Structure to design on (265 residues):
């Protein structure tokens, strides 16, 4: 954090990030030292309640792991996580084996086209998703990291849309319960809404929900202006994590579909 910047956030995505914690970071209370993102974040850290600060810091660390893992030292991460714990929270992605292993677990997954054939989506859609995953894999091998990230984001959104089309009543109820308003037509849903709703329903696991939201942010860099504003330049690790997140999401949705089929019999 320096020169007013915070990670890869723009003012818009910075505000949206804090909205997840019911914090209006654009309010005057957080502009006491200035309007930059860094100054608003420092003001937030000073005046917000400790549990909220802990949640935000935990989420920022997780985002840092994805957008720029290089340069992170284990000792610094341990100190940071200890601070989050003292404030009354836990770093996002923490499990019994520790948050670092969350990423390791993701990277162990292997792409299997037959997994996507088991998704509750149209056969033509399934083939299109597999084709995009294969192309994303080739992009990673060719060091075309931005292209890989954008492709992976499109596959994740396509899977969510296809899943919703198979269980419309379920996901529409989930939307209404989460946002307290009638759901729009599926093609009008934002990717964030798909991830939030399917996560709330338990169809996506917490780790996939968390990493999926980061991938959703990266997918927006299909617009060159957005990439320039964010100064975003994904590396191979970022692209690989995005690729693995899609595989994990496919596993979750296949599992959710199987569970609903079993319960209906």
């Amino acid at each position: 954090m320096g020169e007013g910047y915070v990670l890869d956030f723009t003012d818009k995505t910075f505000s949206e990030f804090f909205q997840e914690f019911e914090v209006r970071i654009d309010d005057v209370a957080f502009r006491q030292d200035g309007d930059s993102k860094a100054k608003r974040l420092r003001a937030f850290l000073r005046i917000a309640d400790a549990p909220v600060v802990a949640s935000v810091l935990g989420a920022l660390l997780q985002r840092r792991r994805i957008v720029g893992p290089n340069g992170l030292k284990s000792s610094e991460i341990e100190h940071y996580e200890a601070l989050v714990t003292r404030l009354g929270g836990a770093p996002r992605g923490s499990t019994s084996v520790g948050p670092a292993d969350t990423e390791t677990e993701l990277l162990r997954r292997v792409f299997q086209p037959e997994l996507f054939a088991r998704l509750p989506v149209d056969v033509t859609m399934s083939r299109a998703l597999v084709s995009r995953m294969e192309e994303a894999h080739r992009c990673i091998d060719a060091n075309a990291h931005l292209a890989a990230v954008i492709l992976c984001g499109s596959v994740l959104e396509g899977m969510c849309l296809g899943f919703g089309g198979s269980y419309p009543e379920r996901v529409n109820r989930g939307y209404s319960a989460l946002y307290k308003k009638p759901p729009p037509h599926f093609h009008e849903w934002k990717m964030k809404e798909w991830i939030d709703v399917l996560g709330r329903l338990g169809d996506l696991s917490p780790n996939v929900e968390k990493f999926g939201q980061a991938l959703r942010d990266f997918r927006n860099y299909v617009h060159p202006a957005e990439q320039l504003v964010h100064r975003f330049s994904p590396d191979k690790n970022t692209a690989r994590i995005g690729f693995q997140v899609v595989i994990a999401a496919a596993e979750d949705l296949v599992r959710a579909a199987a569970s609903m089929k079993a319960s209906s019999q």
